Amino acid sequence: MSHAPRLLAILCAIWLASTAASQPHPPGGLEPEHHSLNRFAGWENHLAVAVPFHISQFETKLVPALARWNLSEYAPCHDVVQVHGRATLVFLYSGDPDVDVVSHGDTLRSGIEKLWAELGPARNCFRGMQILRLQLDPANDKYSDAPCVIFGGMLQRLREAQVYDHVFQMETDVLPVRPNWLEALLRETGFNQGCERYWQRGSMAHCQVHQGRLAERYDVHINGNSIWCLRARVRVSVSVRTRVRTRVRV
Asked: Helix, strand, or coil here: 184?
């Protein structure tokens, strides 16, 4: 990736006022997958794995997506001791989790807590779980305004918490294809202390482009599966009706 990233997608509702100073890559580049995470033991690096969803996606996407993590071929981590305490699973929701109802009459909060309890061994890869409520104005509660507002709100709220160094936005249709993906994310963010190497890393969507008029809007939807550094000296302001053409070299 380029040290001075230039943006490659139209990111709805994001304006980048400045970028963090670029620094050289660590010697040898990225660590191989088998490398121990012990080398990051003294570093403050806490990752939020953020999963935004609409209540209509709870049964159809969220439940099967998390069930997939319990399969050994898609498990988040192998070395629980090394990973534990370094990542938190954050569910992003725009409604009221204590009022909105999912299957069997459960509130959304109760449904999420059951999902977390049923996560099995994969749960041990995370420090914990939280539900982050991001309220929407009625005028913005529609596609594609809502995802943009929620995305900007997520960055702001996680920054303000001053707990997380990076966030990996993992939408409900982003599914792991190999095991130990959380370990890989922690290695990648561990080499980016203080956002020295990048403030954003990810790829464009490789899915159908008809939903949400992605092709018509020239939108390659880079925010759905990407890492964002929360310590970057980047001012992000959100304007629902504005999309800025940006470029990223990957």
From this structure: helix
* Dist CA 62 CA 58 (whole Å): 5
The per-residue b/e assignment along 122-132, b for 16 or more CB within 10 angstroms, e otherwise, is bbebbbebebb
Q: Which positions ≥6 away from 152 have C-beta within 8 Å?
A: 13, 14, 236, 237, 238
Q: How far apart are CA 227 and CA 155, in angstroms?
A: 11
d(CA 75, CA 101): 29
How far is CA 146 from each of CA 12, 139, 140, 175, 233, rounded to the nearest angstrom? 10, 9, 6, 22, 25
Euclidean distance between CA atoms 2 and 234, whole angstroms: 17
Instruction: Please give the pLDDT value at position 221.
Output: 64
Task: Let me know: does 47 contact 88? Beta carbons within 8 Å.
Answer: yes
Number of helices (H) and strands (E) in the chain: give both, helices first: 5, 10
Amino acid identity, position 187? R
pLDDT tens sequence across 135-150: 999 888 887 788 888 9
Q: 122 with 69: CB under 8 angstroms?
A: yes
